[in-house]
Write a structure and sequence with these properties.
- The protein is of the alpha/beta class and 312 residues long.
- The protein has two domains: 192 residues, 3-Layer(aba) Sandwich (Rossmann fold); 81 residues, DNA polymerase, domain 1 (Orthogonal Bundle), CATH 1.10.150.
- The protein contains 13 helices and seven strands.
- A seven-stranded mixed beta sheet has the order 3-2-1-4-5-7-6, with helices on both faces.
- Helix 3 links the parallel strand 2 and strand 3.
- Helix 1 packs across helix 2, helix 7 crosses helix 8 and helix 11 packs parallel to helix 12.
- The longest helix is centred in the last third of the chain and has 14 residues.
- It is globular.
- The protein starts with 15 loop residues before the first helix and ends with a strand.
- The chain binds S-adenosylmethionine (SAM).
- S-adenosylmethionine (SAM) binds next to helix 2 and strand 2.
Length: 312
């Protein structure tokens, strides 16, 4: 068991300054951190919105919830930390008796703590059970997926979510070597299917990313959540999303674009029949990337992109 404490494996909040500047937390404000992690961004929001700003911090991972609770203790009742999915933010707000909020943050992907916590099975660098669930208390594990999906479905997952050109070969090799119990077993089979290492990146990287995304249904969850989270914002409230790979960024860009349009009918349609009304204004026509200094200090930040919209 590899217990995680904030002191032993800190998660550095990515694009911290930029995010706080865009959210511009104020003392009269209420905020939601949809993906609390170790509470880095959460504590920043509470600090800047002192003395009265309030924050609802949500995370699917019970370990992250524990860390964030501890970290936000100094803020007393201004901080509420909940173990749940951000998909349920509207219901949580209702339970709290909160109306609309002034800002929402989503910092997607896996945290450094999750990668370092061996028994979670996110990393091919450690020997561990194939799990990869953000919430290890519910849902199918990576082992369930890898051992049960058809060869075609596995290849599709690896191709779609890993953008892995050897997806078919990998899926074939996985199916003929089942069942899998551990990360190392899977990593070895993927490496042997790819057959070479293209430099610094481990050949298992893309497949592990793909399986993690599928286990947690990450892209569908984000896509489903964005429009409903926008509805929770006050006029002038801001929604900031940090993503870590092109698939997520593309999805967020498209979702924000759609919500910023008055009509979403197909372009070939001469008259609007959708009745869609723009609900946001895009504040970042191009995504914000980390500075070279940040990337140097925290290489994990290198692929991060921040997009922000403001509610109309
Ligand atoms: C990159 S970390 C966030 C780090 C955080 N901003 C910080 O400063 O420490 C992403 C977090 O999102 C959580 N997460 C992923 N999907 C989620 C969901 N649907 N609902 C709530 N939390 C989720 C993960 O468990 C993980 O802790």
């Amino acid at each position: 068991m590899n217990a995680v404490t904030e002191a032993s494996t800190p998660h550095r909040p990515v694009l911290y300054q930029e995010t706080i500047e865009y959210l511009a937390p104020k003392s009269s404000g209420r905020y939601i951190d949809c993906t609390a992690g170790a509470g880095g961004h959460s504590s920043g929001i509470l600090e800047v919105s002192s003395p009265n700003g309030q924050l609802l911090a949500i995370d699917l991972d019970p370990t992250a919830v524990g860390l964030t609770r501890e970290r936000l203790l100094p803020y007393g009742k201004r901080a509420i930390v909940v173990h749940d999915s951000y998909l349920n933010a509207a219901r949580i707000l209702q339970q709290l008796g909160w109306d609309l909020v002034d800002g929402i943050l989503m910092d997607l992907g896996v945290s450094s703590m999750q990668l370092d916590q061996e028994e979670r099975g996110f990393s091919f660098r450690h020997e561990a059970p194939l799990d990869m669930r953000f919430d290890p208390t519910s849902g199918p594990t990576a082992a369930d997926l890898v051992n049960k999906l058809s060869e075609k479905d596995l290849a599709d997952v690896i191709w779609r979510y890993g953008e892995e050109r050897f997806s078919r070969r990998i899926a074939q090799k996985i199916v003929s070597n089942r069942p899998f119990q551990t990360t190392s077993q899977l990593a070895d089979v993927v490496r042997s299917a790819v057959g070479h290492s293209s430099g610094r990146i481990d050949p298992a990287t893309r497949t592990f990313q793909a399986i993690r995304i599928a286990v947690n249904d990450e892209l569908k969850t984000v896509e489903q959540a964005i429009p409903s989270l926008i509805e929770l914002l006050k006029p002038g409230g801001r929604f900031a999303v940090i993503s870590f790979h092109s698939l997520e960024d593309r999805l967020i860009k498209q979702a924000f674009k759609r919500e910023s349009r008055d009509c979403v009918c197909p372009p070939e349609q001469p008259i609007c029949t959708c009745g869609h009304k723009a609900s946001v204004k895009i504040l970042t026509p191009r995504p914000i990337s980390p500075s070279l200094e940040e990337i140097e200090a925290n290489p994990r930040a290198r692929s991060a992109k921040l997009r922000v919209v403001e509610k109309k």
